[in-house]
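Why predict the complex rather than its parts? Because the way molecules touch one another can change local conformation, and only a joint prediction can capture that. The input here totals 525 residues.
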Amino acid sequence: MTTALSPRQRLALSGLGLIVFFGGWEAAVRTGLLPSGMVPAPSSLWQAWLDEVHGGFWQQAILDSLSHYALGLLFGSVLGALTGLLCGMVPVLDAFLAGIVHLLRPVPGLAWVPFAILWFGLNTSGATFVIAISVFWINFYAAYAAVRSVDPELYELASAFGHGSFLGRLFKVVLPASAPGVMAGLRTGLGQGWMSVVAAELFGVPGIGARMMQASSLLATDVVVVYMLTMALLYALTDFLFGFVRVRVLRWQA
Amino acid sequence: MSDAGPLARLEEVGLSHDGGKTFILRHVSLNLHKGEFVALLGPSGVGKSTLLRVLMGLSKPSEGTVVGPTQDGAGTSHGASEGRRRAQALVFQDARLMPWRSVLRNVAFGQEGLGLTRQAKRERALAALRLVGLEDAADRWPRRLSGGQRQRVGVARALTVDPDLLLMDEPFGALDPITRSSLQDELLRIWQQTHKTVLFVTHDIEEALKLATRIVVLSGSPAGITGELELGAGEKEPDSPAFRMYAARLRAMIAGEPDPGGAPYWQSAEI
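Output of the joint prediction:
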């Protein structure tokens, strides 16, 4: 069935979905279907959140995580997209790095944690490093694929009008033509970045992830869920804000 | 400027992509004189576009000499010229607009790197758009244009660099007959207005006859020039006896048959 829904209908249905989800959850805990020791009732989250806010933990965790997130995202996105663009444009570099890429690509961000501690310590730099690595690969592949799919006839156009040099092709063709793909990579990276925040803070760098780990070791499931939802909210916010940038940059696609 | 020599010339040009085992083009010599409208006529896939790219400097010939136009007419090299214009500009078969640029910025693309101010570029681009009748579409995206409009933008982009030589690679080949015909008329008007030298690639005999002052036939494998026809202004009326006679001669040249000569076929004994 492929009935087209209006944006308003979609929004309403998605809201309904959330209500059903939380309502069902609450009902399941209250009726004892789910033991409250295992799963906190949604209604108990409000109090848990207020406690976290009153203690100042919530605000501090957000600030700490935001700084890891922003820095990791910045380094990972910029380096990843740049490397991907260069590999896509320079076949020699592409071939040279192909083996290294295949070697390092499957290593999850979490696996870098011991090295992050050794190299940077239990601090912002260490957490930033872990986030940057996971964001790097997403942007690398997105930019690489975007450059490889640039219409080769546009290079001929650039040459015909005096922009056949490497820089001419880069600025007149590659950057604008690959912008949609690069932006898609950035956007995926925004989500991946938040997921990596937890991994990056697992080993004790203060932030949302660290606070979640503390709470879970105390079996304070309501606090864990509060931070899960906090992260979802932050992701939704960053994605929403990025939407504005994207629309501006890709106006020609609309 | 003296009229000492041709604006651009090809001498014994050959092109091979496998180091000389097989040739796409061989022994091609062609002079282009200032103000001419030359049609390069030949069957599809014969190498007309390739020859255009050799002249443009986009592919290097394996043999022979290519001398493109330069600003002072001295004929020293080809490709992009110094100063505020380019010696030659290319109009592509597929228009080839950049989808991320507005119509105006697509037209202005040709002038980038020429050291013009923003304002000057804008004015020249608008003037070129006016010349092709698309001034009102300056702020639109290429996606929103029809095929004919896209080609007009491609022509405007080439004109905006004020080239001595305008190279056109089957620019109207993909258009419907009505649009094609009106763009042909417009091209003739622009040619008369700007006095550009034009080399126009086509596989359409009638198009070549309608537009050109001289038709050069490229045919065979490897492709070479198999015939040439100089046209007077009064001889281009479609369906006139002269027009049909020329068409018959061109068909023979393309097929590599001997030129039936100037005698119109209705004077021959057969009918």
